[in-house]
Amino acid sequence: MVALSAVVFALSWWLGLYLLARDPRKAVLVCAAVGLTGFALVVALDAVRVATGSATLSQVEIYLVAVPGIAWFAVLLELSQPRDSWRSRAGEAGLVGAVACVAFLGAWMAGGVEGPLRLGHWVLFAAVSVPALSAMVHAVLRRAQPRPVVGFVVIATLFFALGNAILVIPLGLVPSWLALASTGFDVALLGIAVAIGDAFDEGHALRRDMLRSFVGTTVVALLFGAQLLVALAAAGESPTLVVLVFTTLAVAIAINVLADPLAGLLDRVVFSRSPDLRADRAALRGTEAALPRRSANPLDDMDEETFVRVTRRALGHFGDLSKLVASPLTALPVIDERLERRGAPDQPLERANELRALLAERIANLKPRDGADFGTTEQWRHYNSLYFPYVAGVRAYAQNATPAGLDPVARRAWQWLVTEVPQRSLHNWQNAAARVIATDLRSNLVAAR
């Protein structure tokens, strides 16, 4: 049933690319995207294998089957950690690498996805299911995520383990295409759980943004995929047509979901000599993408910890106006007052610019009143941790970072951060400083009410 496999492929491929497009710099989103798109490739490869009867594709598929489980384990490790904590990912990478080695060893021992049942299938099943279940328990006990995310994670992981029993252990109880389709349920739950967690972390609305992407993808998939499925039904399950169905769906969905990054790439090629034009177009695209993520009443019933978290995120996005557009802090009453004072229109970009100016003022208020431009004493820590990385653009810990282009004061700060301040300490100072600013903003919000 190529049609059913195509539906499952389109759903998982879209969801993976959607999560990746939200923010490719977040490890949890990247890992979830790898798992979802990897599962989509398994679905497509299995359909082609069934159509061709190729033993070689069976040997390739057994390795691909392990990828979603490995990625899921990495996602659960990420979800088990508080978002505001700084940590080295070396230990997590080691655990994921160990699970991957055992899983691929099982795949090598199994030799292929077809029966009869062999020891390698058991090893592969255990390698991808046992660590995922353990990580799920760890994530639940840590309670680092909101309740809806935890619920989705528990249900999805349990179904995932059951799905692995069907996929990896070839008992021959059901056809492979039906087993893959049934596993699409927990794949969707995984993507939704990660999306909810990311939206909660950023203080964004999720439903409208995800619905728009889903509807657009559905339209594109129907326009391109339905024609090929009709041809497939008329001509029989030709291997060439089967391959064409999945490649066409993959390209069409990718162009729809990744339209903004692809437009940016095209701009860099066409407008290579016009950096200002590229920047303006990128800002407009980012603003357009951020608008559906704005909550209607983002500050209503927001508790103190949530307010601190969204303030920390806004400070982290200080240099990215398109991300500030979606920040709940743009709904602060003080933003309304500032816009009215300077007679500016009540537009999303104006609110984002005003929020950035407000945050810059609050950061400046953290500066000690001793008349110096820079200091390294304890009283300077809050100001230094926010002003130089976010306002002055000092990227001390970035790979191959240099102080080139910085003013003399920023150069001193760069040297101090590189030589005397561990990244963990800077992160902790930033969290503490964000709490100070959040307390100030929240007090003004309470007074305005």
UniProtKB/TrEMBL annotation:
Protein keywords: Membrane, Transmembrane, Transmembrane helix
Recorded superkingdom: Bacteria
TM ranges: 6-21, 28-48, 60-79, 91-110, 122-141, 148-171, 177-200, 212-235, 241-259
rRNA-binding as UniProt keyword: no
Protein name: Transmembrane protein
Source organism per UniProt: Mycolicibacterium parafortuitum (Mycobacterium parafortuitum)
